[in-house]
Amino acid sequence: DNDTDLEDLFDDDDDNDNAPDMNGTGYLQVEVTTGDGAVPVPKAAVIVTQEINGQSYLVTMKLTDRSGATDVIPLPAPSASFSEAPDPTERPFSEYNVTVYKKGFYTVPEITVPIFDTVKSIQPVSLIPLAENELQGTQRPDGGAANG
Question: What share of the chain is helix, strand, coil (3-state, %, to 5)?
């Protein structure tokens, strides 16, 4: 009977029973702009991390090109067959966190991006320039100027 073959596909006894297998590959491209998306931000640092059991792990770090975009980053994701599986406890995607840093702009921390097998996700990130007094490091945590 053919039932056992199907069970073997979905019965991956890795260490973690509720972690889907990461046999798939999804793709992420981050597009960094400023001025309501009108102006690309080249050489912005894009840091991709993944949280595993409460710990954050660095996956990769990329710089944006002249058009404000990173290379397309291949990332492990659960195989697309999981989205067709009847078990609703499985997430058919993996989550990565994207942080964008560029001198002279506010850092954009940890945007959570779902990555699906075979799918290219484009994550737009809009940076906000720091004000002049903040560039000189005189800002207080409340946002007011230090000499006011």
Answer: 10, 45, 45
